[in-house]
Amino acid sequence: MSFSVGIVGLPNVGKSTLFKTLTKKNVDIAPRPFTTINPNIGVVSVPDERLNKLAEIIKPEKTTPTVIEFVDIAGLVKGAHKGEGLGNQFLAQIRNCDAILNIVRVFKNPEVENVLGQIDPEKEIEVIRVELLMKDLESLEKIISRLDKKRDKKTSKKIEALKRIKQGVSQGRLISQIDLTSEEKLEIKEYQALTTKPILYILNSDNKPELSDIKFKHLIMNLKEEEEILELSESDKEELGLESHLDKLVVACYDILNLITFFTITGGKEVKAWTITKGSNSLRAGEAVHSDFKDKFIKADVIDWQQLVLSGSWSRAREKGLIKTVGKDYQVKDGDVLEFKI
Ligand SMILES: Nc1nc2c(ncn2[C@@H]2O[C@H](COP(=O)(O)OP(=O)(O)OP(=O)(O)O)[C@@H](O)[C@H]2O)c(=O)[nH]1
Ligand SMILES: [Mg+2]
User: Which of 96, 193, 200, 211 has the fewest CB atoms nearer than 10 Å to its CB?
Assistant: First the structure.
C-alpha cells in the first residue's frame, strides 16, 4: 500500500523546487506564478536506519525501502474554489492525496513575484485553509442535497452526520479538528474531504531557522538551498558546512500520516520495509505484502527488529525463544519483523 502527500501552496512559493529535490525529477521551476499546471508525481524512499542494520546481519540479495508518493500541485490562490487562478480542478487533485504539505513563503527574493505582494506567512496559511474549507463546504452541500432526494432511513442518518460536519466547516473548522463520533468519521471517509487530511506546514526561508510563532505543526526549511545541496559532493557539503534536511521532512510526512513500518526478510533473500496505518493487525500487514492473502493467512512469526539484530540471525533468535508465533489479530508494532505462513 502506498501513501501520497500533496504539495500545496500559493504560486511561486517553492513547491516544484521541493518536489525536484525530493524525487530528483527534472520539473519546471521558474520565478513566475503558475509554472506548474499539470501535477508532477514521483515516489521517494523513506530513509530508515533499521533497514540497513537488518541488512547487515541478514545479508540479503536485495534491500528495499518503503516509499511515499509526492504530488506537486499547481499553485492555489484566493477564490480557487470558485475557479480563480488555475481554478477548481487543482483542489480536486488534493482529494487523491492522504496528507497535505503546505509550502509557505518566507524567503524574500524580489525577482520571484509574490502573489500576496508581501511576505505574510499567516495570511498565506489562512488563504489556503479557506480554499480547502470552501471546497469541502461546496462538496458537502452537493452530497447532502443529492442524498436528500432519495431520503430513507439509512440516508437520513447519513445526512444528519454530514450536516453536523458541514456546520463545523462553515464555522471555519477543518474537519480534522471537529470532534466527530466514530460513526461520523466513517460517514465522511468515503468522500475524501480535503480538510480531513493531516497538514504539515513548511516555512520556506532563506535565513537559518528564524523563530516562528506559527501555531501549527511546521518545519522551517530553505528549499533553494536544498536544491543546491543536491548538486554538491560529500566533501563540498562538509567544507561549506551544509547539510540536507530532506530526510527529516520525509520522516515528518510519515509521521503525520500515522504510519508504522514493519519489515519482511523472505527467508533471507530480501529485506524489505512496508508501510501500514498504526493499529493494523497482522492480517492487514499480510495483505500489504500479498494482495491475495485474505483467505490464506494462517499465522506469522514476529520479532522486534532490534532483538533480531542483537541476536545476529533468525535462527539464533529462534533458539533464544525470541520469535513469537501470532495469529490474524496480532496488532503490528512499529519495527516488527514478520514472516508470514500460508
Ligand atoms: N530565494 C529563494 N528562492 C526560492 C526558494 N525556493 C524557491 N525559490 C525560487 O522561487 C521560484 C519559484 O519556485 P517554484 O519551485 O517554481 O515554485 P512553485 O511553488 O512550484 O510555483 P508554481 O508552480 O508557479 O505554483 C524559482 O525561481 C525558485 O528558484 C527559496 O527558498 N529561496
Ligand atoms: Mg511549480
Answer: 211
